[in-house]
Fold these 2 entries.
Entry 1:
Amino acid sequence: MTAMRYLIIYDITDDNLRLKVAETLKDYGLSHIQYSAFLGSLRRNKLNSLIVDLRRLIGDAVENVQIYPLCDICFRRRKMIGKPKRYEVAEEHREQKAAYF
Amino acid sequence: MTAMRYLIIYDITDDNLRLKVAETLKDYGLSHIQYSAFLGSLRRNKLNSLIVDLRRLIGDAVENVQIYPLCDICFRRRKMIGKPKRYEVAEEHREQKAAYF
């Protein structure tokens, strides 16, 4: 079973829910490429499992997650303007980490 | 010259710059699908012109815009979780509009 690349973007107003969604996407091995966007490869069963997890998290809330598959041709033609930002740790952990400095 | 569909996502901390980028994307006829994402079709010359405009706006700031082409196959396989949100007017205009009610 081959993996496919996906771009996942979200618009979640609720801070707690946004953090949970970000942590879920990270748990699936996706990379945090923008404040509200993750990118990475998933096999079909993992994608389905992620969709189930996200549906459970979002429930009936007026919040929004969108998943776009990106074939190799689409992915190779992407463009970046500006500079990449870093989102290695969740907000909670960032505060914890800051205490070490 | 055929148009191609693009998903444009941005992570811009500066409020003023974010508003300018959103207005630029709207001026190019793209649809505001999430707080920090627009989607729509552009001919190649329009895409190039947009990239020039965005580069000029972003300059050397540590801000980030990413453009992903979406072929028909990728686009048809997109998934939405939760509910669509509405972003019809820019923040400034929303305030002006609110004054009419």
Entry 2:
Amino acid sequence: MTTSAPPSPAGDPAAIEEGTAFTPKFDADGLIPAVATSGATGEVLMFAYMNGEAVARTLETGEAHFWSRSRGKLWRKGEESGNTMRVVELRTDCDQDVLWLKVELGGAEACCHTGRRSCFYRTVPLGGGPGQAVTLEFVEADRLFEPEQVYGHARAAKGTLKTSN
Amino acid sequence: MTTSAPPSPAGDPAAIEEGTAFTPKFDADGLIPAVATSGATGEVLMFAYMNGEAVARTLETGEAHFWSRSRGKLWRKGEESGNTMRVVELRTDCDQDVLWLKVELGGAEACCHTGRRSCFYRTVPLGGGPGQAVTLEFVEADRLFEPEQVYGHARAAKGTLKTSN
């Protein structure tokens, strides 16, 4: 199947903000940021980038596709891990340069390559002053799968694990 | 008050992913993406970027600060509109290159410069095939304030409105 990338906008702010034509704005690298939240709980699960083909495939199939910057290739979320991501609703923002995916997780319902449900498993405490070290706190950090078992020891050791989920 | 930018990580994946040291990773422009969601409803409200000083100010004050790429300056959310953004919880992701802010809105409780609660007031219908035009649908798009009254006609006409909320 051939896929065509949606066009970039012509640049009319009123049309972009108040119009109904979907004209996603890609950055200089041809990418648009995408935020995935759980359709069930509203929590932020992950953040990644899409290129035009990833947007087109996501629209066509309803399965989240992204562009791996480190691997330089399109990937369907869960293609290796089985932890798929079905898009329940897709939105764009006022200036159409960000996408928001409300999703339903498949597989182990773990979104993060570390085995956790969400990539955002640590909080950053507020109140620190200038120059103070900030200590993260783990929250909702249980692993739902073991990365080594899913991705393999070799790839984990090579440091390519991050981009393979 | 002087503010120091948190350091970029030394590059050890295990320390970044499994450690407790907050070492936000800024991109080549010195920025890190930040997603703001409502602490009450979980909806995504806006997406913006922070530089080191914006991160530091946000941590110190609990009020969301961002870096305006178009204006080239730090801004405290709501400094002009009154629609402030108090951070209820801050999180970072596995590789510490994204921030997630759970927030409580002040003022008119409108986050978007168009006067709407969220910047994500349009859905992108799924199911379109290659080459098909995609028509956005407005949802939750009521305006809670009139942009011209808040930001002024002159600035709206100059097209600088987007960066002033």
